Amino acid sequence: MRKMTALLMSLGFSAGVLAQDYSAARPGELLQVPLEVLHPTQATVGYDQIYYKLGRFEQERTKLFDEYCEANGQGESSRVPGDADLHRPESFTCQSDVGARRSEMKTVVIGPEGRLFLTDGHHTFTVLLEHPAGGEKLRMWVRVTDNFSDSADMAAFWQRMAEARKVWLRDGNGQAIEPQQIPPRLGLQQLQNDPYRALVYFTREVGYDKPRSGEVAPEFLEFYWGNWLRSVLPLERYDLSDRGDYRDVVEAAAKLMVALQPEQQVGDSGFTARELGGYSSLDRKELNKTAGRKLSYVMRYRQSLADEG
Amino acid sequence: MKHFAGFAASALALAISAQAFAGTVTTDGADLVIKTKGGLEVATTDKAFSFKLSGKLQWDATNFDGLMAADQNQPFDDTFNTFIRRGEFGLEGTAYSDWDWGLRLSYDDTETTEVDRAFIAYTGLDAGTITIGRFGVDYGLENTTSSSWITAIERPFMYDFLNGDEDTKFGVNFKHSGDNYGLMAQVGHYDTYESADSGNDEAYGYTLRAHWAPYLSGTDVVHLGANYHSSNPDDDRSRARTRMGIRSDNDFRLTFGDVRVADKDVEWVLESGAQFGAFRAQAEYYQRQISGEDLAGAKSDVDMSGYYAQVSYMFNGVRQYKAADGKWDKPDNMKGSWEVFARYENSTIDSDATAIPGNLGLAGIVAEDGSDEFKTNAMVVGVNYFATPAVRMSLNYIDYEVDNINTVTQVGGESVQDDGKAIVGRLQYVF
After folding, report:
1. What is the pTM of this model?
2. Pairing relationship of beta strands A116-120 and B337-351 according to DSSP bridges
């Protein structure tokens, strides 16, 4: 009986959380919410980026807590005891208070009925959701950038989102999709894989970096790069299950990036290479670091998935 | 040049302003990114220009006795020394995208301050990086690992017996790196040698290294490597000396071989290492041959060989591995992680009687049998505590022994000892 009561209570609590209305939240406000209430604004993620993080956290446990703290705008973790638990924030400490580094926080737009639409942080939150220590009940802090809850209907809302460049309407093959095709929740079961999105992640600091100095990085910046790369770099030529081949394609992608002139448009993104943080030359040290570490974790995690069957 | 000077001036001004918590900071050139995590780094957003300030301080305290305390006021007795083991302040950067440079001022326990890094490197080739000037060389697994992140306080004493690990006075280095391997070739001149036949003309030796990680899965790794070095002594003096892993104010060293006119000095090193989870093991083996004559023209050769084996375990962290460089790196977590280790070292020095010095570094310390080999060994155990990314504390215990030392002779009225112990502590700050 007690179990039944607890089940009913948890179901009620869960429904309450899902039904929460954030219409009153104002831009700049910080909200703490479970990951399950966040609606994606893109249909795809780069699976390999998520595999890299999950693989790394298996071996480097404190990095998981760094990820949690950074996403909450708290810098890195500062003390992580052996019994630290993401669901008990008092069990470990971060460098700063929540929101101390607002620019590093993940962002949401308030939509109709006060629902939360995640505009930055799909990968980080998918990692935390997929990690055994996280899950969809994990409560994270997000920063509100816009409140579009007064939109007449969902169509009007998505229209505003598109105009503000806060939604990415393409599938894993780069084909256009409708907003209704975006899954309602985060997670690898929901979101499709876009290998170019992951590829761009691995070229970060090799061929480009997110602009930070005096400019605001365009949301979905990596998708702009990825969509352009899809048109100039066929992945079929490479065996992405081989670390050496993967390294080669990262190098090839980064070389294409740095070959663009700073004021040259990156495909049909509407942004120039400079605006998207393109470098003028390949950073080979970072390329080696990426190949030796990040790609190694990708392969490791893929292997663990294969072992699990 | 004007571009570079402008960048440097803007970057310095920005850096100083940032340190002083100034208000709005602007730049008259490219947009800049300032990183303050782990030193100070300033770079243009496209990374075409950058510089980084870095530094290191290592304070050591050591209590030692026995053979390595032979030169102290009370020979062989307990002796306590404190000293700055390393004090370094360096600048490294990039100019025009593909040109790296570096300059470092270094102070060590021999109380000398010198510019030990002054180099330019071209990184714009797919094939590899070319470095010219004065720099440290990748040679051996534990030697290639930064002195900030080596396991014990001192590297294995087998490196005392090697020449290839020395910093170049001037050299040219080429290095090709892949995702799990690297190849290196270098021609260099070292402080050790100048041509004896041609006045003080510099002599140039060469060094080769290849490393490979046949298994690499995150931080789990199996590492293999091979090194070769030819010193080209060109009739200069060549010696086999060691501190047995114990540094002191006096910088006392034992000399087991001294070839006064060396015409050949070659050596090779094999590396192996593995890490699975928090457990790490490594071993290296070397051989070195010095050939030449003594001052009377008699044949004078020294052959050396040895190895060390080491195991370690880390709590609350794991060592990182740089696959492109073939070396260990700092732990992933340095916010309260611990590491314990144990290492056994052994080297044999087989010197011709003509190559054994009259004293082995101090009057009264002599070989027991000039026709016999010297055998050295040490056991080192220790613990490291990584308090913060900048602060590391280490404590080591060393138990060492040397065979073929005459213990009948005396130094300062005390019978010579052929073994000893040491406890060494270190406080390190790096940025």
Report:
1. 0.89
2. unpaired
